[in-house]
């Protein structure tokens, strides 16, 4: 296993071939390395904290599939659960016992009464919005600039993640009528929220927010912000939708709510989940108050369905992952995240590179440049993307796979052991020097 990739002819050949058959050569834009340049690595396998590309180069993975791999790649007990499930068939289109167990696990860890399983985070937020509109009989949706909720038409305005990476504020293909139903506000800005509700309060179906944003880099809510959002929604008869697709079951066993609402005493009306709860398979969910969820088909009139929803293999992977994710897993993940984030910041300081480290539990990111603390998307957009790019490539050359975008959170897993962490620490000084340019 070579640690330092000198060359990637295999990845380059596959990328060339991929571009002939798939737009941009990838099935999700950020994978194309558009923001950092160079050859996207085509991965052949993952084990624990490590990814190996088609050229045989190995990398410490700080992307973790953009969050899902809380336990690392190919965790033996998850693989065993998946293998057992696959041997019994891959999809029946009927109810199964594993779906019920996964739903119970999710309901047991969160304040929601009922949950519906779907296949992607996008489906979860799309369905939650439909349900909120059906429940309230209103159309408007409030979201925050820099928050990404998947590629739902009405939620793509000023979204983070890939749109931030590619510098697009909205996308062709979204009807003006869909965009007109969305009010976009600056994050962490109470006055803007108050003003929007004062003007449109009786027409707002819901406010959706990332429970703690990670799609414009990590920009945590200021203390009490989520409680404020819950309260203003309730005051105006709107639903508060907390999107925990990224934070759910990652920042704690009860997600962001476990360290926020559970402490402050508020609950969202609807929540969305994905990533960790699918254990690396396409599984996601939305859920909430029983009177709201009662409107969902077949109990109520709001339609929602899915051929592969609650898929037996995906739910087996998710259930195994959640059951394995005990307090010791979160302690280990928090510990590794603290070490890597602090050491990265120290190396940059040592090299004289101005930056801002921001974290929320075990999720963190570094904004390069001379910035104030980043509390909203407008500030995140003033970061020095070129500095990040130089740092990214030096880390990649040293066998560390960072998110190929300055606007993404870095993720670690409980499989990031001392050897993996050491490889990251060893790579830092040269990468920090590269970023100093
Ligand atoms: N919501 C949040 C907070 C996300 O981070 C994402 C994906 O990154 C989504 C929704 C969409 O999930 P998916 O990519 O599974 O459609």
Spell out the blueprint of helices and strands.
Layout lengths: L8 H13 L21 E5 L2 E4 L4 E4 L14 H12 L9 H13 L4 E5 L2 H16 L3 E5 L17 H5 L9 H4 L2 E4 L4 H11 L3 E7 L14 H11 L3 E6 L16 H4 L5 E4 L10 E5 L1 H4 L18 H13 L2 H24 L4 E6 L2 E6 L8 H4 L4 H13 L2 E2 L16 H19 L1
Parallel strand pairs: 3-13, 5-6, 5-7, 7-8, 8-9
Antiparallel strand pairs: 1-2, 2-3, 4-10, 9-10, 11-12
Helix pairs in contact: 2-11, 3-11, 7-8, 12-15, 14-15
Bound molecules: pyridoxal-5'-phosphate (PLP).
Pyridoxal-5'-phosphate binds next to helix 4.
Pathway: Porphyrin-containing compound metabolism; protoporphyrin-IX biosynthesis; 5-aminolevulinate from L-glutamyl-tRNA(Glu): step 2/2
Enzyme class: isomerase
InterPro entries: 4pyrrol_synth_GluAld_NH2Trfase (IPR004639), Aminotrans_3 (IPR005814), Aminotrans_3_PPA_site (IPR049704), PyrdxlP-dep_Trfase (IPR015424), PyrdxlP-dep_Trfase_major (IPR015421), PyrdxlP-dep_Trfase_small (IPR015422)
């Amino acid at each position: 296993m070579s640690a330092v990739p000198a060359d990637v002819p295999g990845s380059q050949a596959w990328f060339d071939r991929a571009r002939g058959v798939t737009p941009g050569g990838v099935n999700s834009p950020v994978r194309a390395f558009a923001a950092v340049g160079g050859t996207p690595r085509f991965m052949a396998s993952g084990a624990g904290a490590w990814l190996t590309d088609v050229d045989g180069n190995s990398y410490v993975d700080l992307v973790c599939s953009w969050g899902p791999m809380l336990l690392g790649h190919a965790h033996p007990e998850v693989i065993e659960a998946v293998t057992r499930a696959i041997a019994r068939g891959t999809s029946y289109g009927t109810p199964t016992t594993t779906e019920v167990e996964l739903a119970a696990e999710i309901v047991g860890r969160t304040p929601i009464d009922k949950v519906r399983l779907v296949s992607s985070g996008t489906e979860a937020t799309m369905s939650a919005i439909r349900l909120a509109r059906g429940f309230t009989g209103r159309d408007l949706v409030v979201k925050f600039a820099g928050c990404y909720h998947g590629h739902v038409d009405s939620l793509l305005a000023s979204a983070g993640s890939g749109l931030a990476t590619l510098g697009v504020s909205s996308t062709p293909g979204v009807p003006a009528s869909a965009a007109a139903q969305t009010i976009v506000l600056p994050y962490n800005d109470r006055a803007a929220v108050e003003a929007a509700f004062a003007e449109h309060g009786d027409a707002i179906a819901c406010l959706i927010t990332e429970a703690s944003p990670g799609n414009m880099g990590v920009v945590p809510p200021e203390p009490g912000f989520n409680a404020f959002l819950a309260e203003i929604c309730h005051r105006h008869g709107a639903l508060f939708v907390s999107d925990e697709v990224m934070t759910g079951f990652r920042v704690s066993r009860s997600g962001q709510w476990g360290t926020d609402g559970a402490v402050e005493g508020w609950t969202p009306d609807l929540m969305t989940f994905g990533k960790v709860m699918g254990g690396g398979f396409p599984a996601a969910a939305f859920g909430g108050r029983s009177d709201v969820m009662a409107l969902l088909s077949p109990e109520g009139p709001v339609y929602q369905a899915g051929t592969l929803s609650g898929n037996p293999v995906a739910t087996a992977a998710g259930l195994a992952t959640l059951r394995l994710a005990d307090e010791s897993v979160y302690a280990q993940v928090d510990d590794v995240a603290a070490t890597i984030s602090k050491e990265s910041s120290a190396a940059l300081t040592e090299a004289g590179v101005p930056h801002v480290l921001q974290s929320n539990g075990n999720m963190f990111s570094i904004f390069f440049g001379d910035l104030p603390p980043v509390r909203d998307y407008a500030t995140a957009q003033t970061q020095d993307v070129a500095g990040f790019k130089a740092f990214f490539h030096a880390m990649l050359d040293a066998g560390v796979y960072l998110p190929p975008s300055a606007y993404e959170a870095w993720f670690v897993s409980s499989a990031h052991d001392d050897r993996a962490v050491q490889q990251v620490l060893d790579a830092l000084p040269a990468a920090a020097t590269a970023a100093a340019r």
